[in-house]
C-alpha cells in the first residue's frame, strides 16, 4: 500500500454545536491506482482531503487519524502534521480552477514557486524550463506564451491544466483531486481526467479522486469508497462494487445514475430520475445503530440498535460494506 | 490587441480625462472665487486708500473687465502658465507658487513614504495573527493615531522634540543650500503629517490582506508548501495593495489639506501656508493659482495611482478589474 489512512475523525465547532464531519474513516490506495471517494454534498469527502493536507478550516479539529504515506506515519491530530509533505509528497487539484490561481501573478511565476520547494537550489532558468515543460506535458497549447500570461487570460479548462502542471512539477506520492471537473464544461471533463491519468502514469503516484459522480468513478477509478454522513459505508474495487453493491446506499446511488443508453436500461425508458428519499442525519447527534437506517429501504429492527461493522463481501479481498444484512451468524 | 497596446490605450484614455478634469476644476474655481462677497481692494488696501489707488489696483487685477473677459483672460493665461503679477509683491504669481511648491511636495511625499514604510508592515503583522493580543494592540495603536488630529500631534511633537529636547529645529524649511539642514527641518512636520496615515494604512492593509488570505488561490499555494511568509508578504500582499493604493489616491487631497495645518504650526513655507496667508490678505489671484496647482497635483497623483494599480493588477489594464 502506498497510502493508507486509518480511523480519521474530524469535528467542526459551529455556533449550533459540534458537528462530527468524519467518524473513523479508513482508506487505502495502491501506488499507481486511483481511488474514487464518492458521497453526496455534506458527506465529508472534501474534509478527508483537507485533513490529509493539513488545510482544514480553523474551526475544524482532527480527533483521531493516522496517515501512512510511503512508509512514513503521520499523526493527523497534530496540526500541520503533513506540512512537510505539501508540494513534495502530496499535491492537490481543486474544484474551482477559476479561483485557484492568483490573479496578479503570471502562470510562470506560480509554477516556478512550486519548484522553489521541489527543486531547491535550482536557478531561475532551470525552473522556467521545467515549468514550461510541465505545461507542454499537460497539453496546454503554446506553453512558452502561457508562462507570461495571467490566469484571467486563460479558460477554466486551461487553468485546471495549469494546476495539474503544478501537481506534475511537485512529483507527489499522493495526488488528491477534489472534484476537479465539477466546475468545468462536460466536454472538458474527459480531457482533464485524461491529464490526471497521464500524470499518475508518468509519476506512478496514488490518486484520491473526490467526486459526487459515480460515472466518473466507474470510468476512471480502480477502487471506490462510499462515504455517507461522515462514515465509510462500502469500499472495494470498482468492478466488484459495481457488480455486487454490498450496501443498500451504494445500490441506491447506482440506481440514481441516469443511464445514457435507454435501450440497455429498461428502467430509464420512463425518463424518471431516481432519488433517495430523506435527508442526511444531524451531524451533531449521531442516531444509534446504522447511520443510514433512516433512509434505508431494507432495514429491520436491529438496524436502529446495533452498530454494524465492516463485513467482507464474497471472496474478494478488500470488498466490504457496513450493513448488518451482511453479517454472517 | 496585445497586452502592451491595451495598457497604452488605457493610459491615453486616462490622460485625456486629466486635461478635461483640470479645465473643469479651473472653471469651477474661478466662478467660486468671484462669488465671494466683498471688495478685494478695500480688504487689501484698508479704509484709508485713495479712490485713485483703488482704481489702479482694480485695473491691475483686471477686476474692471466683464466676467466673461476675466474668465477668458484667466484661462488663456493659465494655460500658458501665466497667472499674472501679484499686486502686493509685484512678483509673477507663478514664481511665488513655484518657490513654495517643492517644500510642500517634499513634505507630502516624505510623509506618505513614511506612512507606507511604517503602516504596511504593521498591517501585515496584524494580519498574520488576527485576533491575537498583538493584533489587538496594533489595532488600538492604529485607531489612536487615526483619531488624534494632525493639529494636536503637531503641537505635541513640536513641544517635545523642538522646544523641550532641542533635538530638531523649531521652524522654517531650513537653509536652501544645505540639504542636511533641510532634512532636519523636514523630520518633525513629516512625522506629524504621517502619523495619522500610519494608522490608516495599517488598518487598510490588514483588512485587505485578511480578505485576500481567505481567497482560494491562497489555499493553492499552501497546498504546494509555499511558506506563509511568502504567501502573506508577496502573493497576498500584491493583491491586497490594489484597494489600498486606490484609497491613497483619494486620500492625497486630505494630505495636502492637513499640510496647511502643519506648515502653519512649523512656520514652513509651502503652498498650505501661502494659501492661508493669501486668504487672510484677500489676495485671491494667489489663492486661485495655488488651488489650480493643488487640483493638478491631485489629478496627476490619481493618474499615477491608476497606473500603479494597472501594474499591480493586470485585470485593471485589461478592463476587467
TrEMBL record, chain A:
Q: Which InterPro entries match?
A: AAA+_ATPase, ABC_Ni/Peptide_Import, ABC_transporter-like_ATP-bd, ABC_transporter-like_CS, Oligopep_ABC_C, P-loop_NTPase
Q: Which GO terms describe its cellular component?
A: plasma membrane
- Please list the GO terms describing molecular function: ATP binding; ATP hydrolysis activity
The ABC transporter domain sits at 5-254
Q: Note the superkingdom of the native organism.
A: Bacteria
Q: How does it sit in the membrane?
A: Peripheral membrane protein
An example GO BP is: peptide transport
Q: What is its main location?
A: membrane
The protein's name in its UniProt record: Oligopeptide/dipeptide ABC transporter ATP-binding protein
Species the sequence originates in:
Aminobacter aganoensis
From TrEMBL, chain B:
Oxidoreductase among the record's keywords? no
What is the first-listed, main subcellular location in coarse terms? Answer: membrane
Q: Name one Pfam family in it.
A: BPD_transp_1_N
Q: Which UniProt keywords apply?
A: Cell membrane, Membrane, Transmembrane, Transmembrane helix, Transport
Tell where it localizes: Cell membrane
> Gene3D superfamilies in the record, alphabetically?
MetI-like
Q: Where are the transmembrane segments?
A: 12-36, 105-128, 140-163, 183-201, 239-266, 286-305
Q: Which GO MF terms does the UniProt record name?
A: dipeptide transmembrane transporter activity
- Could you give one GO CC term from the UniProt record? plasma membrane
Enumerate the InterPro entries for this protein: BPD_transp_1_N, MetI-like, MetI-like_sf
Q: Where is the ABC transmembrane type-1 domain?
A: 101-305
The membrane topology term of the UniProt record is:
Multi-pass membrane protein
Recorded family membership? Belongs to the binding-protein-dependent transport system permease family.
Which PANTHER family does this one have?
DIPEPTIDE TRANSPORT SYSTEM PERMEASE PROTEIN DPPB-RELATED (PTHR43163:SF6)
Q: What is the protein name stated in its UniProt record?
A: Peptide/nickel transport system permease protein
Origin species? Aminobacter aganoensis
Amino acid at each position: 500500500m502506498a497510502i493508507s489512512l486509518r480511523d480519521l475523525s474530524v469535528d467542526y465547532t459551529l455556533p449550533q454545536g459540534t458537528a462530527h464531519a468524519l467518524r473513523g474513516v479508513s482508506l487505502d490506495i495502491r501506488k499507481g491506482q486511483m481511488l474514487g471517494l464518492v458521497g453526496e454534498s455534506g458527506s465529508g469527502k472534501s474534509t478527508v482531503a483537507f485533513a490529509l493536507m493539513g488545510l482544514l478550516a480553523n474551526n475544524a479539529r482532527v480527533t483521531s487519524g493516522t496517515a501512512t504515506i510511503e512508509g512514513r506515519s503521520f499523526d493527523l491530530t497534530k496540526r500541520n502534521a503533513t506540512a512537510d509533505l505539501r508540494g513534495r509528497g502530496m499535491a492537490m487539484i481543486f474544484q474551482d480552477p477559476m479561483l485557484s490561481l492568483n490573479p496578479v501573478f503570471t502562470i510562470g511565476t506560480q509554477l516556478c514557486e512550486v519548484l522553489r520547494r521541489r527543486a531547491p537550489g535550482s536557478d531561475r532558468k532551470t525552473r522556467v524550463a521545467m515549468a514550461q515543460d510541465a505545461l507542454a506535458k499537460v497539453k496546454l497549447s503554446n506553453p512558452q506564451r502561457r508562462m507570461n500570461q495571467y490566469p484571467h487570460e486563460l479558460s477554466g479548462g486551461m487553468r485546471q491544466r495549469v494546476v495539474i502542471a503544478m501537481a506534475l512539477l511537485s512529483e507527489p506520492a499522493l495526488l488528491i483531486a477534489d472534484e476537479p471537473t465539477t466546475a468545468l464544461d462536460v466536454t472538458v471533463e474527459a480531457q482533464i481526467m485524461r491529464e490526471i491519468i497521464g500524470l499518475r502514469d508518468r509519476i506512478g503516484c496514488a490518486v484520491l479522486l473526490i467526486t459526487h459522480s459515480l460515472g466518473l468513478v466507474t470510468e476512471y477509478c480502480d477502487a471506490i469508497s462510499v462515504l455517507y454522513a461522515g462514515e465509510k459505508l462500502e469500499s472495494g474495487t470498482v468492478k466488484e462494487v459495481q457488480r455486487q453493491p454490498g450496501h443498500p446506499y451504494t445500490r441506491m446511488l447506482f440506481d440514481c445514475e441516469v443511464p445514457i443508453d435507454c435501450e440497455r436500461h429498461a428502467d430509464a425508458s420512463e425518463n424518471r430520475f431516481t432519488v433517495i428519499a430523506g435527508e442526511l442525519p444531524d451531524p451533531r447527534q449521531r442516531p444509534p445503530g446504522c447511520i443510514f437506517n433512516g433512509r434505508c429501504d431494507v432495514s429491520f429492527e436491529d438496524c436502529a440498535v446495533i452498530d454494524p461493522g465492516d463485513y467482507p463481501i464474497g471472496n474478494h479481498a478488500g470488498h466490504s460494506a457496513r450493513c448488518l444484512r451482511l453479517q454472517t451468524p | 490587441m496585445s497586452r502592451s497596446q491595451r495598457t497604452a490605450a488605457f493610459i491615453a484614455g486616462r490622460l485625456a480625462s486629466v486635461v478635461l478634469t483640470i479645465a473643469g476644476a479651473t472653471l469651477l474655481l474661478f466662478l467660486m472665487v468671484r462669488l465671494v462677497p466683498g471688495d478685494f481692494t478695500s480688504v487689501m488696501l484698508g479704509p484709508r486708500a485713495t479712490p485713485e489707488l483703488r482704481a489702479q489696483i482694480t485695473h491691475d487685477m483686471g477686476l474692471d473687465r466683464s466676467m466673461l473677459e476675466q474668465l477668458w483672460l484667466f484661462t488663456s493665461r493659465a494655460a500658458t502658465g501665466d497667472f499674472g503679477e501679484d499686486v502686493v509683491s509685484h512678483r509673477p504669481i507663478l514664481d511665488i507658487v513655484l518657490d513654495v511648491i517643492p517644500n510642500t511636495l517634499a513634505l507630502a511625499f516624505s510623509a506618505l513614504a513614511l506612512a507606507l514604510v511604517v503602516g504596511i508592515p504593521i498591517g501585515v503583522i496584524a494580519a498574520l495573527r488576527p485576533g491575537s493580543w498583538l493584533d489587538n494592540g496594533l489595532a488600538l495603536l492604529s485607531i489612536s493615531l487615526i483619531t488624534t488630529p494632525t493639529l494636536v500631534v503637531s503641537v505635541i511633537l513640536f513641544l517635545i522634540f523642538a522646544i523641550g529636547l532641542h533635538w530638531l529645529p523649531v521652524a522654517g524649511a531650513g537653509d536652501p543650500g544645505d540639504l542636511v539642514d533641510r532634512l532636519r527641518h523636514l523630520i518633525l512636520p513629516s512625522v506629524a503629517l504621517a502619523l495619522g496615515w500610519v494608522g490608516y494604512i495599517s488598518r487598510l492593509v490588514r483588512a485587505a490582506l485578511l480578505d485576500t488570505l481567505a481567497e482560494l488561490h491562497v489555499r493553492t499555494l499552501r497546498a504546494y508548501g509555499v511558506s506563509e511568509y511568502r504567501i502573506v508578504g508577496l502573493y497576498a500582499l500584491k493583491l491586497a495593495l490594489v484597494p489600498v493604493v486606490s484609497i491613497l489616491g483619494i486620500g492625497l487631497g486630505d494630505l495636502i489639506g492637513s499640510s496647511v495645518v502643519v506648515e502653519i504650526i512649523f512656520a514652513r513655507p509651502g503652498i498650505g501656508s501661502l494659501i492661508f496667508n493669501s486668504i487672510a490678505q484677500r489676495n485671491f489671484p494667489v489663492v486661485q493659482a495655488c488651488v489650480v496647482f493643488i487640483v493638478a497635483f491631485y489629478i496627476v497623483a490619481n493618474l499615477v495611482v491608476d497606473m500603479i494599480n494597472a501594474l499591480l493588477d493586470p485585470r485593471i489594464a485589461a478592463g476587467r478589474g
